[in-house]
Design a protein that fits this description.
heterodimer, A: 352 residues, alpha/beta, 15 strands, 23% strand, B: 363 residues, seven-stranded mixed beta sheet, four-stranded antiparallel beta sheet, 21% strand, globular
């Protein structure tokens, strides 16, 4: 492998022809103490258990799923805030899964993260100039003289007044703070931005502003996005491809339109049918809802075989014994289900 | 996972169509409500002249962004504000009795009895030290002179009705032993234990996942049918509104800017703020269209803009002559031939503007 690597940007190696980012059977199991006085029987929370994903340059990949499905853990693995307990994370073909901090540093510049909460992700004691400037300095992006000019350039890029570089986060509204977080991520000129619920803490009108900003940045700068959200409308709007996660696994993955129009995994179908759609008042017939029974099982002790089987209406004996692999069932659409098929009735209402 | 119900056959639900508005006697009637909070920085005018009414068996959705006054006004309906801190004027009539002028003793009897509330975050609104059953029993015994045993029976019964499996065992468990969706069900059981005629649900599903949200929305709709109560549903999610509400009240900067039946307000709204909201929500079907967000951000309630509070963000203010939007606050009146709906906007022909300027660019 080392023979094929070619040095690109200082310190970042790449393998010819490799995808920009590739997750190969990535696992993240967290240790928890077992019950009882001697804490015997250490248990493992299988937050992420065998995720395969790829990302091409400039592409936007949406990750959806309910709380506890492992989408945020996946974000933390991609940005290597966590070290996976198994599998490989390859950036341009180079495995960064277990790299030490020193070797990882150039890669950190390439993959940046935008956080959900614009209130807790900015240091209240630092001015905006310091916050964005620190990112510039950390990654040696500009020399000291050029720092302020670049900070102002970045603020302008995200739609903030460049004269406000000496203000503190509390002087900005939620939407503006999220823009500061975006400016900080852009400071390193990343190739990938992992956005973990970047708009879910914002009000509807502000949410649309930030989404338009992200979309413009993507078009202008050609950055690839891993976009994590629980709002299926937001993900549909922003992403080329979408992966649906359930209990630490990807259960379905494919191009946006095929996934939303012809979902094949029962969980994807249930998830999509559960989204309340405003279109009903415009004469669109209401959806046939699939109501899931019960709760998501514990990731400490997930069901055998298919993890969705305890809530699935299609489940047969085979689902308990054989773990379905993520296989291509339609062009570019991969599904992990023994009984994958497009919905019989249109679950997403269509305009008549 | 012992009480996991086995999954049923393809379990699909389609909600029944709602009956059109009838001229029913309102159960909740809010008239010219003002809520103000004096602070060191000035007076926060959280609610300014809000009026609406809800009859029994109907659901009113109050829609608005943070700081629009939707929660503050609903807390006033339940008499939850500390009157040493909040200045409340206007009238709130629930089943004929005025809430604003109630004494503390009367309020105690009223809250949780005729009217009750479901809060957004079941994690912080259930007490971690008491079992779920104890908390439901407390609410029941505050309004009914019954033995603990009877109250416990009632608690078990209520938990069963909100769809908690194994209620006899669950009643003795603590909130942390419940999942998020189940906690919200327990909260609903607690809110409904005294058969309230008025139920206020403040963002009851915002903290929940969509599949759980769908379960809870069904549950609230079912319970409303059984109990025949009036429901005020506070949310910012217009999709939820479209599913559950009969009428909508859109709030902005402490006032109602538009009010009417759900299909009208979401189908052909007449206020530029409502237009902006619709243009900000990505569609679930069709070709993704660019979003047209409302510029700027909501005003501070310490300094609400003069005239129409929405005018600094409104792209249509130039179509109104004489700078009216900046100087004169419009009234909440019917602006078209349809008398069943009202809006607060100076535009002469809002229905035409919607059709020519807004409709083509809706997502």
């Amino acid at each position: 492998m080392t023979a094929a690597t070619t040095p690109a940007r200082s310190g970042v190696k790449s393998v010819e022809g490799a995808p920009l980012l590739e997750l190969d059977n990535v696992k993240m199991h967290f240790k928890t103490k077992g019950e009882g006085f001697l804490s015997r029987g250490t248990k493992w929370v299988q937050a992420v258990d065998g995720v395969d994903l790829t990302l091409k340059p400039g592409e936007t990949l949406g990750l959806v799923g309910e709380s506890g499905c492992g989408k945020s853990t996946t974000a933390r693995l991609i940005t290597r805030l966590l070290e996976p307990t198994g599998g490989e994370i390859r950036y341009q073909g180079v495995d960064i899964a277990h790299m030490n901090e020193r070797r990882l540093r150039p890669y950190r510049r390439e993959i940046q993260l935008i956080f959900q909460d614009p209130y807790s992700s900015l240091n209240p004691r630092h001015t905006v100039g310091t916050i964005v400037g620190t990112a510039l300095r950390t990654h040696d992006m500009v020399d000291k003289k050029g720092e302020l000019a670049r900070v102002q350039e970045l603020l302008e890029l995200v739609g903030l007044n460049p004269e406000h570089y000496n203000r503190y986060p509390h002087e900005f509204s939620g939407g503006q703070r999220q823009r500061i977080g975006i400016a900080r991520a852009l400071a390193a000129r990343p190739k990938i931005i992992v956005a973990d619920e970047p708009v879910s803490a914002l009000d509807v009108s502000i949410q649309a502003q930030v989404m338009n900003l992200l979309e413009n940045l993507r078009k202008e700068l050609g950055i690839a996005f891993v976009f994590i959200a629980h709002d299926l409308g937001v993900v549909r709007h922003f992403c080329d491809r979408v992966a649906v996660m359930y209990l630490g696994r990807v259960v379905e993955e494919g191009p946006r339109d095929s996934l939303y129009n012809a979902p094949q995994h029962p969980y994807t179908q249930a998830l999509l049918s559960a989204v309340p759609d405003i279109a009903v008042v415009r004469g669109v017939p209401p959806k046939n809802r699939i109501r899931l029974v019960g709760d998501v099982p514990s990731p400490v002790d997930p069901p055998s075989g298919c993890r969705f089987r305890t809530r699935c209406w299609k489940a047969q004996d085979i689902c308990a014994t054989n773990d379905p692999a993520l296989e291509e069932k339609a062009p570019a659409q991969r599904v992990a289900c023994h009984f994958a098929e497009p919905p019989v009735e249109s679950i997403v209402a269509e305009v008549v | 996972m012992s009480d996991q119900t086995s999954p049923a056959a393809p379990h699909t639900v389609t909600r029944v169509a709602r009956t059109p508005a009838a001229n029913e006697e309102p159960y909740l009637e809010v008239n010219d409500l003002h809520v103000q909070f004096p602070t060191a920085d000035g007076v926060v005018k959280a609610v300014q002249g809000l009026s609406y009414s809800v009859p029994l068996r109907r659901t009113l959705a109050i829609v608005g962004e943070s700081g629009s006054g939707k929660s503050v006004s609903s807390m006033a309906v339940l008499g939850l504000h500390d009157r040493r801190v909040a200045r409340i004027t206007g009238s709130i009539k629930v089943g004929g009795q005025d809430v604003v002028s109630m004494s503390d003793k009367e309020l105690e009897k009223y809250r949780g009895g005729d009217a009750s509330m479901i809060f957004q975050d079941p994690q912080s609104s259930l007490h971690p030290y008491f079992t779920v059953g104890d908390q439901i029993m407390e609410s029941y015994r505050a309004h009914h002179n019954v033995s603990k045993r009877k109250a416990k029976e009632r608690a078990v019964d209520m938990l069963g009705r909100v769809g908690i499996p194994n209620p006899r065992r669950r009643v003795d468990q603590y909130p942390h032993e419940f999942s998020g969706g189940m906690r919200q069900r327990a909260m609903i059981a607690m809110a409904l234990v005294n058969d309230p005629k008025l139920l206020i649900a403040d963002e009851p599903t915002t903290a929940l996942d969509v599949t759980v949200q769908a379960q809870i929305l069904d549950l609230i709709a079912d319970l409303q049918r059984d109990f025949g109560s009036a429901v005020v549903f506070i949310t910012h999610d217009l999709g939820v509104v479209a599913e559950i509400a009969d009428d909508i009240l859109v709030m902005y900067a402490g006032t109602a800017v538009e009010h009417g039946p759900v299909n009208k307000i979401l189908g052909e709204p007449l206020h530029p703020y409502s237009w902006g909201l619709l243009e900000s929500i990505p569609a679930l079907t069709g070709e993704p269209a660019p979003l047209h967000p409302i510029p700027g951000s909501p005003p501070s309630l310490l300094a609400v803009p003069s005239g129409c509070p929405f005018h600094p963000r409104c792209e249509f203010k130039d179509r109104v002559p004489d700078d009216l939007c900046r100087t004169l606050r419009p009234e909440l009146i019917s602006r078209t031939a349809d008398l069943g709906r009202t809006s607060r906007c100076h535009l002469k022909d809002p229905d035409r503007v919607f059709e020519t300027d807004v409709l083509p660019r809706l997502p």
